[in-house]
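Open question from group meeting: does this chain pack into something compact, or does most of it stay loose? Before anyone orders reagents, we agreed to write out a predicted structure and look at it together. Recording both the input and the output here so the notebook holds the full record.
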Amino acid sequence: MRVLRLHIKLCPTIGELNKHASYLGYKLSRDTVYHLFQLRESAKLGKSFYETPHTKVFLNKKTRVLVLCSGACILRLLLENFHVISLRVYADRIVAVVAVENNRTEESLNTLRNSLLLVEEVNPAEIELTRTDIETLMSLRSLGLLDYPKRIKLEDLARLVGRSKSTISYRLRRAIKKVIEAAV
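Structure tokens returned:
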């Protein structure tokens, strides 16, 4: 397993929206990525922005929250090909810390080759994980809790390892927090 920090170019639509809005986050469904933005008071988007061929845009005029729906998004490729540990959207790029199987690294990176700005290796030795952290993460990986779609539910994983759901959830969050703190 390799841990990488990927710097990825923003798609032009999100790049343009970042000039007029604050990025709130994303939600992923089976075939669509929903990006949420909070429009600034002074923001005015032309009618052509709402009529793009690959996206749908919805705006709540009262709250000024804009939802951008896209089936062809770089985040979809990222989530389909890597175990995403953390993800941040900046004004000019996306920075993601990801884990990938050693034998799938090149194949996974090739899916993003036109959008990658920089790939950095994160040294796992810098991450101070306990034996329990490592066992929890290995279980998550091998049983598919981090896959999209999930191959196992947290409740089922807890039952398999003979622990409560809250214990497994706590161990998972603690281990992932250590990985994130070491990587960013």
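Observations to bring back to the group:
The chain has a mean pLDDT of 79.
Residues 17 and 68 are 10 Å apart (CA to CA).
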